[in-house]
């Protein structure tokens, strides 16, 4: 189109030149002399071809431009970058350029425009070796950011979990009020850079609700537990009692179920520790005999039945152990010095186990 329009302009100019030449020639009678070509020796006009050549040359950068968009970066090892929220394309380009992963900044700007620059997402990204600017722009557009993870161990209090979250690198914001005890599911959680701590807590609460609801409907018949909350309370006690020997959860749960059915106090040391610390940290010393007399609704030596609320955040296995406990005749248990417990059906057996435990403890 460009060439033909120009050629039409050139032909008009040529005709005008010929008309002027004819007008300036002397008249010979009624007829004018035949028109004479303005290009001597029958040569074709060169100007149109020059413009066509310029036009064709102007097309050469286009292939080179697209080659640049697809050219691999020169980094020899993966590079991690962080794109904060609200970062402009210009700032993203600068970050990438400083990391040495761009063939040329302008090429990334062009690639981001081609792939809808308004959709580039904040986050932490790992850029592999040899990515083109198109690859990088697509990575940011699709939000394929690095996924991190952290683990919440079973048996932590809500205070301890909030403290743990405060130290998780890459999370933002505050949890706010400490969640209710027992409402957080201990688990390994996957997150992205700049995820909000309060949102993580919501995920943990939702996970705990789902697990508890799923296991509650499958519970063993005849349990002395009125609702899911009581199951959660007992599971928190079982969790703390079996922290060193998880395979005993079902048996310990069976002992507590037997005691609840008989109306006997649970006499669980972890409940007394919670009464003293309120779950804000470890006791920091051995539990003393006088501690067993502390006046607290959490003291299961002084109060029959369950404490008013959980004493920690139990995991799935502890909840399952309480709702599917081992059926046994044990009423007592005491530490055996190996991280586990010695179980007894009678007080006499139990007293022997206690004596053995005291011998083990003696230096």
Explain how this protein is built.
With 363 residues, the protein is mostly helical. Among the domains are: 1-17 and 37-59; 71-142, Endolytic murein transglycosylase (Dna Ligase, domain 1), CATH 3.30.1490.480; 212-328, no CATH class. Helix content is 45%, strand content 8%. It is built from 13 helices and 6 strands. A two-stranded antiparallel ribbon has the order 1-2. Strands 3-4 form a two-stranded antiparallel sheet. It has a two-stranded antiparallel sheet with strand order 5-6. A hairpin with a 5-residue loop joins strand 5 and strand 6 (341-344). Helix 4 crosses helix 5, helix 5 (105-114) packs across helix 6 and helix 8 (197-216) packs parallel to helix 12 (316-323). 27% of the residues are buried. The model is unreliable at 1-43 (pLDDT under 50).
